[in-house]
Write a structure and sequence with these properties.
The chain is mainly α. The protein has helices spanning 2-17, 22-49, 51-55, 57-85, 102-123, 129-133, 136-154, 158-165, 171-191, 199-206, 212-221, 225-244, 246-253, 256-262, 271-278, 280-305. Helix 9 crosses helix 14.
Amino acid sequence: MLLEIGLIAGGVPAGWILRRNERAVCWVNECLSWTVRIMLFLLGLALGLDDALLEQLESLGLYAAVISTFSVAGCFVAAGFLGRFVFIEYAPGQEKGTAGPAAGSRSSFIALAFFIAGAVLGWLCLVPQDVAAGTAAVWVLYLLLFLAGMTVGFDLKALGIIRELKGRILLIPLGVVVGTFAGSALAWSLLSMFSDITLVESLAVGGGFGYYSLATVILTRLGDPALGSVALLSNMIHEALALLLPPFLVRFTGKLGPVLAGGAAAMDTCLPVVAHVSGERCAILAVFSGMCLTLLVPILLPVIMMFR
């Protein structure tokens, strides 16, 4: 866990140094996208090679859909609460949705395609098992963490908002955490009626906050590939919902709705939707919240799994 946090922290100053080099910024962002896709391909490959896991895929998909739906709903509720009682300027009913999510959703569909391709190749046994079972996925994860840290260092505009809002801004990522965990707990209460999933497992899946790649690898490395697969599917659905729902729900949840629903992905994949639906100011809040949640994921997930 310390290594993962260190890699993210080490990437921040590197990104800050290169922040004015547009070519370097574009290169890092492109590498980040391809690193995520390669990692998802390796994870899909591992899934395809695991016959026992494939037999559970139908039930795992149901768990993922329920947890992600309730988690996103919890984030929207938290956004409405914060808008009404803390951030009055972002209160529900003041803005109309103006943008569609097509541009942002493309990235999720491409990533999903890489995962499916890996799973199919593994299922057909067209790739040696050592490729998936070796250290490749671990090294790809390390690269992903460092590049994610660099993206944090690229954008320091949030510092102005931090000074203006002072401590209030911390309530935004906190609202994501509370809304997600509340939704995950409600999802568990429903799933526990017909499955043996535990509260801790449901919270761990939701605790990816939409960061499907990192959450999946962490839970898989903690010794539960099945739960890692649930986390992958759940957090990808979470991100898809965060891209699709804001234009329709922003009038009820306020301008903070898209920010909180995006979770960790609010700083990258969901950022265009946030900017178009809620405005540039909320886009800066989304970057700050996404940064905080990105740093929290590798800390919270191992801690949650300790109570399993």
